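ok trying again, last paste got cut off:
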Amino acid sequence: MVENITTLIELIEKITDVVEDQETVTLKTVLDSIGTRSLGPLLLLAGLITLAPIIGDIPGVPTVMALVVLLIAGQLAFHRKHLWLPQWLLKRSVSKSKMQKMLDWSRKPARFVDRYTYPRLTFLVEGWGQRAVALMCIVIALAMPIMEIVPFSANFAGLALASFGLALISRDGALALIALAVIAALVAFVIYQFAG
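nice, full thing came through this time. structure:
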């Protein structure tokens, strides 16, 4: 039985333990390590993958993560207890070396973030607040394929998704507000790129 994940470092360590035994790492392998009962860690993982420069900047990765987020957020909006993903998506893989680099890159910021997240403004991440988070994630995911043509915009999207995921697992509504600010900055950045 997979324990509840409540911090970024716990998520990274669980994935690291699994990656050590693999040559290529599939999405199914990662999901097996973190479980499918809590959708927050899965949303956080999709955000981290999109945010990480090593993996998130690979062409096509933001679009695949957008599909994952659409499925996760859609099920989150309807309060599903277990996550379902299609087999073709579960078989998507990345090399062990790229996954390890992403995990190593994530550790330092994860420790920093974990020091400042705790349950507060919980109404923003529970009940109707959780549904609002799911809807915002759906909007981000729908825009992510377009973001592949605007440099660094997908990384901003990854930051917002990771913030929403962490807000859900740590029950930190203040972090959900930060994610909204990131979305506002992302919209301004994309408008600036197209206007310039």
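cool. The chain has a mean pLDDT of 82. Residues 8-195 form one domain.
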